[in-house]
């Protein structure tokens, strides 16, 4: 009887170890219980580096609005560079250049924004301004109307022909 206890105990220990690892979708007959606890999981929202952990204060510059896109590095990231078409996760604050009034912020919702960095998903100023920025960066973009919402604006918060100022934290890209 003793000889049987050792192999059974070993088998139980191996089963427990496999269960603790979350199982494998390649192992036949192994299924995880729906809604069951997971030991290791991938966070859906990346944790920002310390330099990007607090909402930035965004001020509209003085003087006439620029006619071209202005890109200013506030914090230089060290992660991979962002490429057009990638899924990016960012925190951002947007203000009107003319008045400095905040019109949108992911910080207000306490939820980073994930989107494709492509035309139709975000304004062209984001695609141009974030391309080449590294993950972990905080960048200020001053976006002229032709690279933002143009003559139509985005009523009621963004008037027609508005130049926009964004401070964007690049949290991830893939």
Topology:
Blueprint: H1 2-20, E1 70-75, E2 87-96, E3 102-105, H2 106-109, E4 113-116, H3 124-130, E5 138-143, E6 164-173
Antiparallel strand pairs: 1-5, 2-3, 2-4, 2-6, 5-6
Q: Specify the helix fraction band.
A: 10-25%
Q: How far apart are the first and last residues' alpha carbons, in Å?
A: 56 Å
Strand content: 15-25%
- Mean pLDDT across the residues is 82
How does the major sheet shape up? 6 strands, antiparallel
Q: How many domains make up the coordinates?
A: 2
Broad shape:
globular
Low-confidence stretches: 1-43
Structural class: alpha+beta
Q: What is the CATH class of the largest domain?
A: Alpha Beta
User: How many strand segments?
Assistant: 6
CATH fold-type name of the largest domain: Chitinase A, domain 3
Q: How many DSSP helices?
A: 3
CATH architecture of the largest domain, please? Roll
Order of helices and strands: HEEEHEHEE
Task: Please state the CA-atom Rg, rounded to the nearest Å.
Answer: 24 Å
Explain what the structure shows.
The chain is of the alpha+beta class. It has 2 domains: 1-39, no CATH class; 50-173, Chitinase A, domain 3. The protein is built from 3 helices and 6 strands. Strands 1, 2, 3, 4, 5 and 6 form a 6-stranded antiparallel sheet that branches. Strand 2 (87-96) and strand 3 form a beta hairpin. Residues 1-43 have low confidence and may be disordered.
């Amino acid at each position: 009887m003793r000889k049987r206890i050792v192999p059974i105990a070993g088998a139980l220990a191996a089963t427990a170890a496999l269960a603790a690892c979350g199982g494998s979708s390649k192992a036949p007959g192994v299924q995880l219980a729906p809604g069951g606890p997971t030991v290791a999981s991938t966070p859906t929202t990346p944790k920002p580096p310390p330099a990007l952990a607090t909402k930035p204060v965004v001020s509209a510059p003085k003087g006439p609005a620029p006619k071209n896109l202005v890109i200013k590095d506030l914090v230089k990231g060290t992660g991979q560079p962002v490429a057009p078409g990638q899924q990016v996760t960012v925190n951002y604050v947007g203000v009107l250049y003319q008045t400095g009034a905040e019109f949108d912020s992911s910080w207000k919702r306490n939820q980073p924004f994930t989107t494709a960095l492509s035309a139709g998903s975000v304004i062209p100023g984001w695609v141009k301004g974030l391309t080449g920025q590294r993950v972990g960066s905080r960048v200020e973009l001053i976006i002229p109307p032709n690279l933002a919402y143009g003559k139509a604006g985005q009523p009621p918060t963004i008037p027609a022909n508005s130049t926009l100022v964004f401070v964007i934290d690049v949290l991830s890209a893939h």
